[in-house]
Each structure stands twice: as structure tokens, then as C-alpha cells.
Write a structure and sequence with these properties.
The chain has 278 residues and is an alpha/beta fold. It has 2 domains: 177 residues, Rossmann fold (3-Layer(aba) Sandwich), CATH 3.40.50.1100; 86 residues, Rossmann fold. 40% of the residues lie in helices and 18% in strands. The protein has 9 helices and 10 strands. Helix 3 links the parallel strand 4 and strand 5. Helix 1 packs across helix 4, helix 2 packs parallel to helix 3 and helix 7 crosses helix 8.
Length: 278
């Protein structure tokens, strides 16, 4: 039996903050607890029945949540997943528990003989489409009118996909990107967060993001942890650093712009980041 039906249709919770309302879409409720489940599922839907058949192998250029999602969703269909280590021991062990084989790349992809290789640009394109068609559409159906949408940026796919979809319906919505101080990708910087591997974004990607985003905010780790604690103590939900940063970015947007209804996305759970949370 496929568990694909456990991806998507994630709930939204509401938290009052002063006179405003913070609306958090919990991607933590996907099959593996990550927003990446949506992207992995759409990749598999595209490939299965075409270049990828049972018994085949997919090779990813990134590990971590995407490797976990791909392994969990592909394994029941007899498809193997190969990916590089993420640098996060907990996430790597979880990926291996789902059946992924982690291989440190030597000068690029191509470590798995005969594998179907997914380069980062292909994954980004699928991710943007996924968040435009699926995540963004779902958010609009659940929440209706909002004053702003706040989303984090590592690759920029969530920001671009959701931002585009919401603005087509809510023309005056403010779209705000959030970056961690240790991972300033929206400023063209290098990600130096010890728990996250992320490439520097190219100029073309930054220009694409700039077409969608009205503003971006930078949140440091201490602030992100404050957001994590706010979610855990107010709602009983343990979110990761990206979710904590998004919460604090949304609160800052409410104050800066005087907004009343602000939506944000909680991309993953916090169990894999306990070393920095506690």
C-alpha cells in the first residue's frame, strides 16, 4: 500500500500576537515531517513509468530532508536512493533508516553506477512548480485573505512558488523572505550554518527571487531558537531552526508593516536539531 496520500493537506494553526494573528502551515505533518515530502513525491510522479522503474536508483545532489523524503516515498516501489551526507548526524541516520545510501561525492555526482541523476536545477524547477501548484494553492484555500506571506530561503523554491501563487490571487499581499544570519543566501552569501549544507545562490536565482519578494529579513540563531520555544511552549509543536526563523520573521513583519494576518510555513520538525535548540 502506498503512503503517498500522507503527503500534503497539512493543517494550519493560529497564534495571537498582540493585535495580530500569526498563521502557521505545519509541513511537519507530512509523512516524514518535512516540506520536502511534497517535492520528492512530485519528482517520483514525474519519473515513475518513464525513465525510473522498480529496481532503479535515483541519485541526489543533496542529502538531509530531501534524501529522507525520497527514500521513504520511493522504497515501497522498489526504488533505491543515493545521496551525499548532509552533515547532520541525526538526519543522515534517519535517511539511512529509510533505506538511503549515503556516499560522499568525489568531485560531483556520479557515485552510483547506472543511477538516474537529479541535478540541483532540476530539483529546483520541480520544487517551484510543487509549491506554486500545491503548497501555495492549499494555503490560499485554507486561509483566504492574508496581509503577508513569510517563507524561508535556502534554495528559494518555496519562496518563489508560494509567493507567485498567492500574489496571483491577493494582489496586495506582502511577500517576505527569511534567511538565517549564518546562511545569508538571499544576500548572495555562503551558508556557514553547521547543521545545514546549502550552496551559494547564483545571480539568476537571486534575480528570480527578487521578482517575487518585497523584502527580506535576517534572523540569527538566538532569535530562531526563541521562535522554536514560542511554538513549543505555546502550541506544543517542536519546529526546526528554519521554522523558528520563519516565526520570528513573521512577527517582525507584523511589527514593521503593521500587518494583522501573516502566514508562514513551518518546513520541518525540530528533533534533528536538538543540539542547537537545547
Amino acid at each position: 500500500m502506498s503512503t503517498w496520500f500522507l503527503v500534503g493537506n497539512t493543517p494550519t494553526v493560529r497564534l495571537r500576537f498582540g493585535d495580530g494573528e500569526l498563521l502557521m502551515k505545519l509541513e511537519t505533518c507530512n509523512l516524514t515531517g518535512s516540506l520536502k515530502d511534497r517535492v520528492a513525491l512530485n519528482i517520483l510522479k514525474r519519473l515513475m513509468g518513464g525513465p525510473l522503474a522498480p529496481g532503479g536508483t535515483v541519485e541526489l545532489a543533496e542529502g538531509g530532508p530531501l534524501a529522507i523524503s525520497m527514500a521513504a516515498l520511493a522504497a515501497p516501489h522498489g526504488i533505491a536512493v543515493v545521496a551525499p551526507p548532509s552533515g547532520n548526524r541525526y538526519l543522515d541516520r534517519l535517511a539511512e533508516a529509510y533505506g538511503a545510501r549515503l556516499v560522499e561525492p568525489k568531485g560531483g555526482m556520479g557515485e552510483a553506477h547506472g543511477a538516474l541523476r537529479l541535478d540541483p536545477d532540476t530539483v529546483f524547477e520541480v520544487a517551484v512548480e510543487t509549491h506554486y501548484e500545491w503548497t501555495g494553492g492549499e494555503l490560499l484555500r485554507q486561509l483566504g485573505a492574508v496581509d503577508a506571506v513569510v517563507a524561508g530561503a535556502v534554495s528559494g523554491a518555496t519562496l518563489v512558488g508560494v509567493g507567485r501563487r498567492v500574489r496571483e490571487v491577493l494582489h496586495d499581499v506582502v511577500v517576505i523572505g527569511v534567511q538565517l544570519e549564518e546562511c545569508p543566501v538571499l544576500s548572495g552569501g555562503h551558508c556557514a550554518a553547521p547543521w545545514m549544507r546549502a550552496p551559494r545562490l547564483g545571480q539568476e536565482r537571486l534575480e528570480l527571487i527578487d521578482k517575487v519578494v518585497d523584502d527580506h529579513v535576517t534572523i540569527n540563531v538566538k532569535e530562531a531558537i526563541e521562535g522554536i520555544r514560542l511554538a513549543s511552549r505555546s502550541l506544543g509543536i517542536l519546529v526546526g531552526p528554519s521554522g523558528g526563523a520563519n516565526i520570528m520573521g513573521a512577527i517582525r513583519a507584523m511589527k514593521t508593516y503593521g500587518l494583522n494576518r501573516v502566514a508562514t510555513i513551518i518546513p520541518d520538525r525540530g528533533e534533528g536539531f536538538l543540539e542547537i535548540i537545547t
